[in-house]
Amino acid sequence: MEDSPCHLQRLHCSVKNYDWGLPGRVSEVARLHALNSGSRFRAEDPYAELWIGTHDSSPSFLASNGVSLKSWISDNPDVLGEQVLLKWGADLPFLFKVLSVGKALSIQAHPDKELARILHKLHPDLYKDGNHKPEMALAITNFEALCGFITLKELKGVLHSIPEIVELIGATNTNLVLQTNDHDGEEKVKSVLKAVFTDLMSASKERVTDAVNRLKTRLLKENEVRQLTDKEQLVLRLEGQYPSDVGVIAAFFLNLVKLNPGEALFLGANEPHAYLSGECVECMATSDNVVRAGLTPKLRDVQTLCSMLTYKQGSPEILHGVSLNPYVNKYTPPFEEFEIDRCILPQGETVVFPAVPGPSIFLVTVGEGNMNTGSPEGHVVTEGNVLFAAANTEISVTSASELHLYRTAVNSKVFQAS
């Protein structure tokens, strides 16, 4: 029997085979997509992203009838709830993904709404929509990323210890950094960082290739007599993935962040970042706007990237989630479009997700159980299942074996504010 719009809808989701993904045989994306779609994966092909939502680049479809989730929501707008409909129209404001990262993604940033509108208008072929794209990554496995700029003090340390960077950015830029202090004020520090980083990212291909090669040779030699730092080891790894790329050098300017399973990182507009390795669930505003400048074979837009960044410094905040009950942790970023719940339910236990005024999407990654919205029969759920839950639906989940699921929804602060 097909669910009425007020209940649950099973979804079939699409996959992206970008070359930075993990090979099918070890990729969580490949495994979940195969289970979700009933298809087989190819053991050696890269599987990078599972997309769950309404974005035109990779929409999800109702399992019951093959209608796209976007057009079904458009025909049944009440499933979003009144406030979501008023605020964002008849569409999901968030896009949910699973990522399997085998090698580094590009050094990139996502534009804020104003810049996104301008870029979309000027280059609609490159910037596909006019929306901003704040995002949050919640680690499933150990996960590594570059995110945000290191502090001024740390940058001075880099210039003292990495002669190849000094040669690449030149004496004037080097002295500019070394002569700047935190008490010169935040704006001064940011303008210095912007000038130096822009010069670095704009350096000629020949000079970058030369600097990266000399850096690699020196580090490999020093590795024989001393333990390289985490950042130096990373830089050698990046050079192996993207030889002669300016992103190899740029990594020294950014914080290396390591997440354990269950820890999350949020990325606001205009913040530089690059995912490096591991698997995560990711949620973001419904957008696919990316401005890239390194560690990529794709088009780079160095001037746009360097002009849009905030140049804030220091380590990003790592979210550990707030415990709602013994089984569920909630991760709430400072963005209205989304939040994520992570649920680990031991065998034979039941947990209730209270009715909320907006839509939710559930993804089961481990185990099986039963999901019930008050109807007597319930829904058997198992690994790879994705379900859309309409607004104002209370959902009870009982596990038949240890069950891991993720729920993404509109940020609950939106409803508290009204």
TrEMBL record:
Look up keyword Plastid and say if it applies: no
UniProt domain Phosphomannose isomerase type I catalytic: residue ranges? 8-149
Q: Which superkingdom, per the lineage?
A: Eukaryota
E.C. number, please? Answer: 5.3.1.8
Gene Ontology MF terms in the entry = mannose-6-phosphate isomerase activity; zinc ion binding
- Which positions in this protein are listed as binding Zn(2+)? Q108, H110, E135, H273
* Boundaries of every Phosphomannose isomerase type I C-terminal domain copy: 331-371
Give the pathway: Nucleotide-sugar biosynthesis; GDP-alpha-D-mannose biosynthesis; alpha-D-mannose 1-phosphate from D-fructose 6-phosphate: step 1/2
Cofactors: Zn(2+)
Alphabetical list of InterPro entries matching this protein? Man6P_Isoase-1 (IPR001250), Mannose-6-P_Isomerase (IPR016305), Pmannose_isomerase-type1_CS (IPR018050), PMI_typeI_C (IPR046456), PMI_typeI_cat (IPR046457), PMI_typeI_hel (IPR046458), RmlC-like_jellyroll (IPR014710), RmlC_Cupin_sf (IPR011051)
Q: Which GO terms describe its cellular component?
A: cytosol
Q: Which keywords accompany this UniProt record?
A: Isomerase, Metal-binding, Zinc
| Gene3D superfamilies to which the protein is assigned, alphabetical | Jelly Rolls, Phosphomannose Isomerase, domain 2
Tell me how the cofactor is bound. Binds 1 zinc ion per subunit.
**The UniProt record lists the keyword Signal:** no
Please tell me which top-level EC class this enzyme sits in. isomerase
Give me the reactions it catalyses. D-mannose 6-phosphate = D-fructose 6-phosphate
Q: Which residues form the active site?
A: R292
Tell me where in this chain the Phosphomannose isomerase type I helical insertion domain is found.
171-254
Q: Output the GO biological process annotations, alphabetical, semicolon-separated.
A: carbohydrate metabolic process; GDP-mannose biosynthetic process; response to cadmium ion; response to L-ascorbic acid; response to light stimulus; response to zinc ion
Task: Name the family.
Answer: Belongs to the mannose-6-phosphate isomerase type 1 family.
Please state what the protein is called: Mannose-6-phosphate isomerase
